[in-house]
Write a structure and sequence with these properties.
- There is one protein chain.
- This protein has two domains: about 120 residues, Phosphorylase Kinase, domain 1, CATH 3.30.200; about 140 residues, Transferase(Phosphotransferase), domain 1 (Orthogonal Bundle).
- Helices cover about 40% and strands about 25% of the residues.
- Strands 1, 2, 3, 4, 5, 8 and 9 form a seven-stranded antiparallel sheet that branches.
- The relative contact order is 0.11.
């Protein structure tokens, strides 16, 4: 089991240095566990006692038989937490802000695939979708709003430059905090993510999802975001073609969602 070196004493103090102890730890479910892929997956919130007193918040994901087939694991599959942990470590190597893993482990018990992943709370961050829903983004002065859009665009571009396609890039998975005169961005929920060797697919897949899930943004804001994603330059013919494709696909997803509502 992986344990982050700077978290070992903390986890030992809380009796969470062994897989079985982590698996059986008490945590408050944030939402009802997902039951698919022949098993289940859920995340809970827990308080950990600090060595010097006080406490800190951690999030514990647990899975049972929640796997995805892959080239390396074509028969039994690989737990989606193992995929998430791999992507987190890749983003860390590229200096891209994401969840900080405290521990990770997989275990087979009585023929069942079990997996755990504990991460630190993203202190000071807020989900982008909450900032949109409560009107804080819309209420920002134009200069500040553009700083936020540019920060998100630069972040997504850097993630894609690292070869990572999120595959579920919704506003709720982008976390925002004030960082000096600008904004800091972090990404979560990487279970569906993958390393993609095709830059075009990385871009259009994620930007379609993000465009679809930020319905309250104006056309001007979307264009400003896209220009910054492209490097804050004049859009060329290829850029414009990609943008038209992203808009068209987003529109189809929105119509399909409305028809199923």
């Amino acid at each position: 089991m992986f344990i982050a070196p700077d978290c070992r004493k903390l986890l030992e103090l809380n009796g969470l240095d062994k897989f079985e102890k982590v698996w059986n730890a008490e945590a408050d479910w944030i939402e009802t566990p997902n039951r698919d892929r022949g098993g289940w997956s859920g995340v809970g919130r827990m308080s950990l006692a600090l060595p010097g007193g006080g406490e800190c918040i951690a999030f514990l994901k647990r899975q049972q038989n929640h796997a995805r087939l892959s080239f390396r694991h074509p028969i039994k599959g690989e737990t989606t937490l193992a995929r998430e942990f791999t992507i987190i470590r890749r983003l860390e190597r590229h200096g891209i802000s994401t969840l900080k893993p405290m521990l990770f482990g997989v275990c087979e018990h009585d023929g069942e695939q079990l997996a755990v992943l504990m991460t630190e709370e993203l202190t000071g961050y807020q989900p982008l979708d909450e900032l949109i829903k409560n009107g804080k983004v819309q209420a920002m002065p134009l200069r500040q709003k553009r700083q936020l859009l540019a920060a998100i665009a630069d972040f997504v571009r850097q993630m894609h430059a690292a070869g990572v396609e999120h595959r579920s890039l919704y506003a709720k998975h982008l976390f925002v905090k004030r960082d000096g005169n600008g904004f800091g961005i972090a990404i979560i929920d990487l279970e569906k993510s993958r390393v993609s060797l095709m830059p075009f697919l990385r871009m259009v897949s994620d930007l379609i999802s993000l465009n679809y899930r930020t319905g309250t943004w104006s056309r001007t804001s979307r264009l400003y975001f896209y220009r910054h994603y492209c490097g804050d330059r004049k859009l060329n013919a290829w850029d414009k073609l990609c943008l038209r494709y992203i808009i068209a696909r987003s529109y189809k997803k929105r119509l399909k969602s409305e028809s199923n509502a």
